[in-house]
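dumping this here so i dont lose it
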């Protein structure tokens, strides 16, 4: 052995692992977060979305990084907590992002400390087993039989892509082909854009995405499926899958799964349900009829990080026939597992897009274990009931209108007093939203329906109440009147 210097552990690395520093800063952070949870629930003194322009925000952090290294984490954390959007705030009514129950933060802390990989069993066996139990129980609640399976993955977008990749492999396997002639999907024109992306990622392009029109309720016109199917066959296309919305992103509309399933079964076509947002209603006795027939789908995506009080990303991809999930990717990786062909449920990386897969099931499992599945049911019932209540408030007002009766906790509406010309309504509502959100008073989003701009709410915080929604309408009215005055649109 040539003479060499023994490598010594560097000082800074030693310092980065100091347990006492961790204990001290960790206790401080838990206290900061507990205080924050208490304040955010009430939402009284904090802007729901503290607004600063993107470049100014960025400069702040660049300046901090250029200064000398600083161990004072408390002020840094305090800034992050105060300046972030507050999804827990009663006035958070924007995108479909959960108000996470506080236990999520503890589960993430633990998962990060252990850094378990869940693609390979050996790299995180308790986390893999937890994921298995979560999936099995979710399948039971959904109504799948014992042959069902699935796994957690990084978001609804990836879950939908993976399901569609499986559909393609399953069809190729059934037909004994290594590729399919002109593969295509049939999907509601109101589907989330990630389905479009999936078609592009698979190389199917525009021609591979057949959009089925929606009816006045924004539900897929399932009665048109046979005609579109015949036309596709005439063009030499292979319809690999139909994607049903449960529910759609823009208006929260649920497609009729039973009717779509009848069609798919008749033609032996894979049925995938994009339930990223709304398939969560499987937990609710009151609202599960919205997804009647979901157990007939070949695959279903459900995001816990939308309606199920779990922080991002926590997506379940479920398969009616668990064997299908092994078809998606077959890979040679002798450094990971001894037998590439063996169906080892516990080496999840054989079936997932991810190789290093983080701990994805722990948070939802912990909520389920701690409070029971009724936690999810109660939350959904509250949000959907509130959605219907709000719709009634709009219907009874004489200056707001709904484009469609809401079917979920997603509600579109707009301010349209009779005296305002129709061509002014888009600019008026756009002004109202922008002024409202940059003031920090409420966070809401907007969408376009039939060329018209609508304000869009997702009721997601457990702390939003009827009083919050009354307050919202008053704020919007005041902004609307301000716009009309400034633009001389009010009758004198
Ligand atoms: C219906 C639907 N599908 C898929 C997605 C994408 O899910 P994720 O944001 O988890 O990737 C969304 C997100 O809003 C959605 O509403």
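and the seq i came up w/
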């Amino acid at each position: 052995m040539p003479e060499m210097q023994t490598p010594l552990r560097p000082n800074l690395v030693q310092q980065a692992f100091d347990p006492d520093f961790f204990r001290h800063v960790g206790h401080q952070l838990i206290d900061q977060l507990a205080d924050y949870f208490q304040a955010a629930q009430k939402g009284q003194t904090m802007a729901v979305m503290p607004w600063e322009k993107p470049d100014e925000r960025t400069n702040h952090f660049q300046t901090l990084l250029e200064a000398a290294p600083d161990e004072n984490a408390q002020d840094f954390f305090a800034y992050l907590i105060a300046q972030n959007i507050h999804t827990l705030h009663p006035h958070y009514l924007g995108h479909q992002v959960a108000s996470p129950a506080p236990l999520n933060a503890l589960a993430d802390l633990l998962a990060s400390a252990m850094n378990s990989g869940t693609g390979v069993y050996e790299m995180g066996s308790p986390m893999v087993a937890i994921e298995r139990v979560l999936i099995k129980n979710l399948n039971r609640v959904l109504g799948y039989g014992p042959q069902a399976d699935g796994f957690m993955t990084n978001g609804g977008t990836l879950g939908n892509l993976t399901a569609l990749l499986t559909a393609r492999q399953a069809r190729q396997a059934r037909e004994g082909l290594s590729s399919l002639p002109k593969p295509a999907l049939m999907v509601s024109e109101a589907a989330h854009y990630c389905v479009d992306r999936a078609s592009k990622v698979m190389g199917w392009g525009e021609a591979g995405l057949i959009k089925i029109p929606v009816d006045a309720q924004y539900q897929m016109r399932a009665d048109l499926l046979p005609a579109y199917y015949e036309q596709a066959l005439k063009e030499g296309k292979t319809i690999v899958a139909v994607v049903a919305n449960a529910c759609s992103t823009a208006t929260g509309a649920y497609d009729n799964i039973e009717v779509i399933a009848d069609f798919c079964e008749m033609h032996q076509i894979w049925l995938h349900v994009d339930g990223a947002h709304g398939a969560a209603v499987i937990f609710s006795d009151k609202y599960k009829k919205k997804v009647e027939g979901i157990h007939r789908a070949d695959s279903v995506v459900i995001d816990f990080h939308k309606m199920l009080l779990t922080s991002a990303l926590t997506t379940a991809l479920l398969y009616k026939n668990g064997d299908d999930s092994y078809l998606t990717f077959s890979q040679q990786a002798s450094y990971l597992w001894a037998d590439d062909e063996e169906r080892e449920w516990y080496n999840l990386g054989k079936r997932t897009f991810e190789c290093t897969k983080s701990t994805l099931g722990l948070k939802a499992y912990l909520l389920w274990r701690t409070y029971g599945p009724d936690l999810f049911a109660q939350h959904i019932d509250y949000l959907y009931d509130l959605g219907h209540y709000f719709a009634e408030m709009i219907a009874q007002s004489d200056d707001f209108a709904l484009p469609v009766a809401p079917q979920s906790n997603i509600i579109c509406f707009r301010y349209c007093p009779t005296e305002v010309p129709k061509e002014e309504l888009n600019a008026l509502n756009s002004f109202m939203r922008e002024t409202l959100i940059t003031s920090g008073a409420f966070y809401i989003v907007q969408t376009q329906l039939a060329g018209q701009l609508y304000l869009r709410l997702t009721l997601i915080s457990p702390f939003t109440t009827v009083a919050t929604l009354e307050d919202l309408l008053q704020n919007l009215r005041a902004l609307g009147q301000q716009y009309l005055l400034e633009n001389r649109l009010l009758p004198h």
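The pocket of pyridoxal-5'-phosphate is lined by residues 96, 155-157, 192, 194, 249, 274, 276-277, 303, 315 (CB under 6 Å).
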